[in-house]
Specification:
binds calcium ion
Length: about 140
């Protein structure tokens, strides 16, 4: 009988301990994930404005492992193109990225760009960044 009481107390203590762990708030180390600007350019000298430059700010607090990023571009037609990559955060935690998407602009109209970051079980995604190639269409550079 005494042993049963001990087991009951042990189970209650275990449940309280697990509940405390489960309810503890975890704070994401991904402090900032932001698309600052999206620009249509001729980055590869191909004489066509069909390259997309995406400027991104990532700020990671206390992290030393690699951060996995997924960039998604949704085309005016609804087509989707995705690329994934990893970055090693700078010692300060603040990293500025200039992503050059060569020959990715292939349709006139509004594009949407998002960036998703995953770090040690934490996941953050930017709001969709709308982007309309200058003049509403792609074409020869210098006009
Ligand atoms: Ca190009």
């Amino acid at each position: 009988m005494r042993r049963r009481g001990f087991l009951l107390v042990a189970l209650v203590l275990l449940a309280v301990a697990l509940g405390g762990v489960a309810s503890a708030e975890r704070t994401s180390p991904i402090r900032t994930l932001r698309i600052d600007e999206v620009t249509l350019l001729d980055l590869d000298g191909g004489t066509w404005l069909n390259d997309i430059l995406v400027n991104v700010t990532v700020e990671l607090q206390g992290g030393k492992d690699s951060l996995e990023l997924t960039l998604t571009v949704t085309y005016p037609s609804g087509a989707v193109r995705v690329t994934e990559f990893e970055i090693k955060p700078s010692p300060s935690g603040l990293t500025l990225l200039n992503l050059k998407l060569l020959n990715w602009a292939t349709e006139p109209g509004w594009y949407t760009v998002t960036i998703e970051a995953a770090y040690n079980g934490y996941d953050t995604i930017t709001d969709p960044f709308p982007f309309d190639p200058e003049g509403g269409s792609i074409g020869p550079s210098g006009i």
